[in-house]
Amino acid sequence: MTVKAKPSPKPASTAVAAPRTDKPAAVKAPAAPKQPANKAPAAAPAAAAPKAAKAVKPAKEDKPKKIKMVRDSFTMPENDYAQLAELKKKCLQGGVHVKKSELLRAGLQSLSRMPAAALIEAMAQVEKIKTGRPAKS
User: Fold this and answer.
1) Percent helix, strand and coil across the chain, each rounded to 5?
2) What are the b/e assignments for 37-62, b being 16+ CB within 10 Å?
3) pTM score
4) Contact criterion met (CB below 8 Å) for 122 and 111
5) 20 to 30 Å CA-CA from 69: which of 11, 14, 43, 80?
């Protein structure tokens, strides 16, 4: 009996330690049956219950995919930039708080709904400016 008790603690201590990559999985499986019979059946149902609970949760698949955000910089004349502030004030008076980026996105949506001829006419009214950063004064 003392001879059998010494080999069983060694596999139990190796099972608690980090698993080795050089041993095949078949060597790890016999370590569990060497434990006393009253402990092995109690551990098996407890281990099976969490696996069943994880299989029931498909909540991550229901979430919509995140849209990637792009950060950009552009040059705009002062009077166009002032129009953004005026539009923000109008929205606040109507009880809606908006950001500059939201105003620009709303403008894009409006432009995308226009027929091609109306879009070209609207773009003809926009002043062409030199791209890039303004010179330091």
Assistant:
1) 60, 0, 40
2) eeeeeeeeeeeeeeeeeeeeeeeeee
3) 0.48
4) yes
5) 80
Q: What angle do CA 15, 16, 18 make, to 5 degrees?
A: 85
Tokens of 77: 């004349």
Neighbours of 11 (CB within 10 A): 16
C-beta atoms surrounding 14 within 10 Å: 15
Dihedral Cα 68, 69, 70, 75, nearest 10 deg: 160
